[in-house]
Amino acid sequence: MVCGTFTLTKIATSEVDGVVAGYNANNPRPISVTKTKAADGTWTVTATFPPCPANTSHSTGN
Amino acid sequence: MRTSHPSFCGSSRMFRLLLVIGFAGMVASCSAIQGYPPDPENTSAVLASLQPYFQPSQADTYIKETDPTRRQQLRDLIVLNQVRAYDIEFNNYEKSLYLSGNGISTGSDLVLLVLNGLGATLGGAATKAALAAASTGIVGAQTAITKDLYYQKTLPALLAQMEANRSAVELRIFTGLNQEDAKYSLLQAYLDLQALKQAGGIPPAITSIAQQAADANDASQAKIQELRSLPISHTESSARIQSWLFPKDAQGKPVLNQDHWDALQKWMSSDTTDTTLRSIPVQQLVRGGDSQSLEADRQRALADLKIP
């Protein structure tokens, strides 16, 4: 089961909407997908899925 | 108005009794298969002959010995004979576990449960009580089968782990015996012999298996953690999968092919080569860069799903 947050970085402007669409197509869908422009002009896309169970090591529930 | 036919009912009960006992007996007889060849060695006699090597006087003799060569010979003699005794006892224990997990207990449990159930059923109690007792007998039999099937399924893994645990300790002992007495004394060997005795038990085997599972889970979680944040990939494999998932329409705009997406996600969920794929989004596999394992996964996906 996919849980926690996943991020892709160094994304060119021409590709960023495709990456967002890719995360949103996941089943189950993420709770949210955000894109942030970095200082170097590239984009970072973060998909947030439901928090990982407490017994999962290295869980990134935020 | 109902009439009773005592003699017929009695025959019917007797027939049912014989039928069920016969069935239970057949099940019990299935347990006669032997999993090991007959042992030509009289292990009881051998074990008795090895008892002197467990006497404290043997260690006293060793300690008092001043000649290094003779001292090492004594060490080897005591240790090897104790190892042999532990091996014989372990083999006996292993055989008993194997036999108990392959039908005998199921058969005998069933006979016991069926007879108990019948005794309660045919004991002249009220119909309701008899049915309840019969039901208890059936449920009990099912519990016995479930317990024994579970035991049978887990026993090979336990036996394999017990043997692995023993082999690890025996390797330590034999490596020690290859050294001179000053480097591996009898007293050190005694510690390893104690470990050998314990290593053949079920609790250490369960602990080892549980630890291996925990280690595998930790490794899997660590790998997932590494995949959580990656730079975007620009490899050929990424581009091919991306084009397959999002082919362009007549206007040149990428459009999701849901069938392809579902096929890839199903492949990720069922992949046994890299089970971490079940715990990451499709996008991380397709577009995640700087990861040799993801590149290898993409290559397998291209081949398995025949992606052009």
Number of strands of chain A: 3
The H-and-E topology of chain B, N to C, reads as: HHHHHHHEHHHH
What structural class do helix, strand and pairing data of chain B support? mainly alpha
Quickly count the domains of chain B. Answer: 2
| Overall mean pLDDT of chain A | 87
Low-confidence stretches of chain B: 1-10, 23-32, 103-108, 117-123
Helix content of chain B: over 70%
Largest sheet of chain A: 3 strands, antiparallel
Quick synopsis:
Chain A is an alpha+beta fold.
Descriptive account of the structure:
- The complex is a heterodimer of chains A (62) and B (308).
- With 62 residues, chain A is of the alpha+beta class.
- Chain A has one domain.
- In chain A, 19% of the residues lie in helices and 31% in strands.
- Chain A is built from one helix and three strands.
- Chain A has a three-stranded antiparallel beta sheet, with helices on one face.
- In chain A, a hairpin with a 5-residue loop joins strand 2 and strand 3.
- Chain A starts with a strand and ends in a 14-residue tail after the last strand.
- Mean pLDDT of chain A is 87; it is low at 57-62.
- The model of chain B is unreliable at 1-10, 23-32, 103-108 and 117-123 (pLDDT under 50).
- The longest helix of chain B is centred in the N-terminal third of the chain and has 54 residues, at 68-121.
- Chain B has 308 residues and is an all-alpha fold.
- Chain B has two domains: 10-218, no CATH class; 230-304, no CATH class.
- Chain B contains eleven helices and one strand, in the order H-H-H-H-H-H-H-E-H-H-H-H.
- The interface between A and B is medium-sized, with 29 and 30 residues.
